[in-house]
Amino acid sequence: MAKNKLVVVTNILIEEEPRLSLEELCSVCQVTPEFIQDLIEYGIFEETLLTRNDFGAQHLRRVKTVLHLQKDLEVNLPGAALVLDLMDELEELRKQLEVFQKSVTRF
Predict the structure, then answer these.
(1) Of 9, 72, 74, 107, which residue has the fewest beta carbons closer than 10 angstroms?
(2) Is pLDDT at 54 greater than 60 in this prediction?
(3) What is the dihedral sign for C-alpha 9, 10, 13, 14?
(4) Model pTM above 0.85
(5) What residues form DSSP beta bridges with 20?
(6) 7 DSSP β-pair partners
(7) Which residue stretches of 30-76 are H helix?
(8) How do residues 77-95 score in pLDDT, each as one tens digit?
(9) How many CA atoms lie within 13 A of 35 on its CB side?
């Protein structure tokens, strides 16, 4: 599995996100490549991921979330895709609210 890399730029420490291959992602999450293909088919991941073979922390979190939804809540893949879409939308709305609140407090 890929290790975290640290880069120092003008005395500022920047941590690069670890990158995983398909095999590493499957090993860490204990899933098959076919499961990842199913996630792509349901729109949970973009199609280009398999050709790039480059997965990051956000992909790992999404796989773990899908597995949790399936195991603990008995949600099927279409349902998991919907839940993830709603979670993404909620996160975007929270960011917009934060920006709005910062702009309102200035006045």
Answers:
(1) 107
(2) yes
(3) negative
(4) no
(5) 55
(6) 14
(7) 33-41, 48-52, 57-73
(8) 999 999 999 999 999 999 9
(9) 16
User: According to the model, what pLDDT value does residue 16 have?
Assistant: 67
Please give the Cα distance from 18 to 28 (Å, whole number).
13
Q: Is the distance from CB of 12 to CB of 45 less than 8 angstroms?
A: no
d(CA 78, CA 1): 30
User: Burial of 56 by CB count in 10 Å (0-12 exposed, 13-18 middle, 19+ buried)?
Assistant: middle
For the chain, the residue count is 107
What token pair was written down for 80?
């998991």
What is the pLDDT, as a whole number, of residue 4?
A: 59
Burial class (CB in 10 A: 0-12, 13-18, 19+), 50: middle
Above 60 in pLDDT, residue 12? no
